[in-house]
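Narrative progress, year one. The postdoctoral researcher (J.K.) led the effort to move from monomer predictions toward full complexes, under supervision of the PI. The following entry was the first complex the group processed end to end, covering 434 residues in total.
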Amino acid sequence: APPEWDWRSKGAVTKVKDQGMCGSCWAFSVTGNVEGQWFLNQGTLLSLSEQELLDCDKMDKACMGGLPSNAYSAIKNLGGLETEDDYSYRGHMQTCSFSAEKAKVYINDSVELSQNEQKLAAWLAKRGPISVAINAFGMQFYRHGISRPLRPLCSPWLIDHAVLLVGYGNRSDIPFWAIKNSWGTDWGEKVSLAGLASGPPAAIL
Amino acid sequence: VAAPAQPQAASFQAWGPPSPELLAPARFALDMFNRGRAAGTRAVLGLVRGRVRRAGQGSLYSLEATLEEPPCKDTTVCRLPASKKTLLCSFEVLDELGKHVLLRKDCDPVDTKVPDSRNETFSSVLSLLNEDPLPQDLPVKMASIFKNFVITYNRTYESKEEARWRLSVFVNNMVRAQKIQALDRGTAQYGVTKFSDLTEEEFRTIYLNPLLREEPGNKMKPVKSVGDF
């Protein structure tokens, strides 16, 4: 893997979105991953619909939570994703109004990546942003910087929030993953990226 | 008698030589402070006060100590000769099964404590929380920070009771944020965010996704390698 990487400055990441008062992080993590894949494979960055997943993904529970792995199979079964503009976000579940004719993107399959961080970094740099789930410990009060909780807090039993890995690197020898969250633009670290006068805020883990 | 389920919060002991209970963590903190210092340049422990909070098999010591730094005449150690100096330090030491971990060290020459410029109001107020007795103007300071929060994030509350409740949640969250700060080993800054008036339960219920922990979900094929399409 290259020493650092950031898809935000390579056009593969849409602006930060806001899930509102709804446990729909899983939908934003998945659309972010598919947005990146569509950009890298088709050359177009489209902002895709989370509301479609809230309404039409019957395996998951909309604002009560969901799993990315279910969401990928729902996207396959539905026949694709509409854009954010065509099927805009409401922040609560409604009747499914997906229309296959309006789907702008589709996926063939989904895979599970290694949990080895070196392999993840290599995959991210070559293949695009990755949907991951983390422990949101401390994120309620996170303002900026590299967050490194004590190891016991990184237990898989405490996973409770899905986000998008958009890059990695290190600052003064502290390695970090850059994550794109879905809590709106008034949360997290605002960064200025090459090419983006003021980049979308993202947290740094 | 079984230990109580909730962590015990002992009150701050008065300044004085370290009490037997505080001696071990105080000495550990001093050793950490002196690590790497040559003989003759090490600081000496002065007065100590502090409190201990117990939870499970661990104890968290919040200490304040004065350290006496010896005069420094050796130009290879300090560029300018320095007379004897007293430092006021605050330490947080975690003791788990006899193993000490220094969670926080904060030392300044006496009377020149400089607040954290980036998060000034937050840390200076929190140090107020640690004072004993609480200063009279603490409510005023808290209220002004809370007011800034309400204006910044355009909060509205249905009633005065609701506002008062939210203020108490806000204050409690500031203490929680400081604890998280103390536990963090990176460069992250924790403090006031748009979620600062939500209880942990509210935040977890509204914004987080417990399903991620509970259900395995649809099984996906593992990717073989980076090159695997």
